[in-house]
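Two proteins follow. First one:
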Amino acid sequence: MSEVKVEILAESPGVAPVPSSLVARTILVTLPPGSPGAPPHRHPGPIYAYVLKGAITFELEGSPECVIRAGEAFFEPGGDVIHYKGANHLDDEESALVATMICAPGLPVLTVVSQEELEARKHLRA
C-alpha cells in the first residue's frame, strides 16, 4: 500500500479569515482550442486556481501577460483588479482550470468592464 502524498501547489501569505457571511465557490472553466476566454472583467472576490490541463494565457492589471501551464497554480485578488486575459494558449487542444472564489452569495462569477473604464485605467496595465 502506498502512502498518501500531499503537495503544496501555491501559497498566498497575508490572507485573512473568511467571514461567515461569505461563501467559497469552486468553478471549473473549460476553454476550447484557441478560445480568447472572457472579455476584460472583474471577479467579486479573491480566487485560488489550478490549471488541470493545457495552458492559459493570463493577464491581470499591473502584471505582465504570462502562460500558466497544467500543474501550476495561481492567485487572483479579485475586487477592483481587472482580469484582462484568461485565454487558451493552445490552438489544438482544450485547456481547463479549477478555481475557488471567496465572495458574497449570489454574486456573478465575473462582471465585464466597460470600454470607458478600460480607457480610463489603461495606465495601470503592464
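Second one, unrelated to the first:
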Amino acid sequence: MARQTGLIKLKGTLDNVNFYKSKDGNLARMKTSVDGKRIASDPAFVRTRENNKEFGTSAIAGKLLRTALRPLMQSASDGGVTARMTKVMTMVKNFDTQGSRGGRNVAAGIVNPAAKELLKGFNFNERSAIGSVFFKPFQVDTNTGAITITDLIPINDVAFPQGATHVSLKCAWTKVDFVTGVSNTQISPESNLPIDSTSADVTLTPPQAPTGQGTDIFVLCLEFFQEVNATQYSLKNGAFNVLSIVEVN
C-alpha cells in the first residue's frame, strides 16, 4: 500500500494499480491477479485459507466484545477501534495451544493468563488513552465489579480538555462467552464531579454481577462536560472521553 502525493489524486484502476481514498488518505495498491475462487480451492493456497479462517473468527470475537460494550462506546471510541480490536483478538487466538492451523480461536486462547493481559489496557478511544488522562490509582474488585478511587482531586488527577467543567466516571462489568457468542453487561451509576480542587472518594459499582458464563472484563469510562446555565453538554461528541479495559478475569 502506497500513499498518493501531489495535487492530483486518482481514483480507479490504472495498469493494475488501484487508486482509492480511505480514512488514512489517498492510497494506491497493486491489483491482485489471484482469483478468489482459486484461493478457495487450490491446494497451493491452503495456508491462506487457514489464515483467513482464523482471522475471521478473531474479527467475530472482537465484534462480540464491542457489541457488549456498545452503550459506552457510543460516547468513547474512535474510527480505528475495529481494526485494533481485531489485531488484539488475533494475538489472543495465538494462545490456543490445542487447535490445529485454521482452527485456533479466541475462546480457547483467552483462558491463558497471558492472553488476558493482552486485552488489559485496551483503549477504545486511542485519541484519549486512560494513561494520558487519568493519573489516580484505583482498585478493581473482581468479585463485585466495583472500582474504588480514593482522594480523587479532579483538577490534579485528570487531564481535562479546554472548556470542560465536569467529569463523569462510570464502570462496567461484562461477561463474554466467546464460545456461544452470548454476553451480559452491567453498568454502574455514574459519579459526576466538578473539575476543581475538591477531594472525593469515588466508588463505582455495577448493580449486579452479569449473568452467564465466560470471560469477565472490567472497564472504566470517563466523560467530559461543559456546564452552561445549569445544563451539562458533552464536549465534541466524545472526542476526549476515555473507555479502557482495566481488568480481565
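SUMMARY FIELD: Residues 2 and 28 are 5 Å apart (CA to CA). The helical segments are 36-41, 46-68, 70-73, 81-93, 106-109, 113-119, 154-157.
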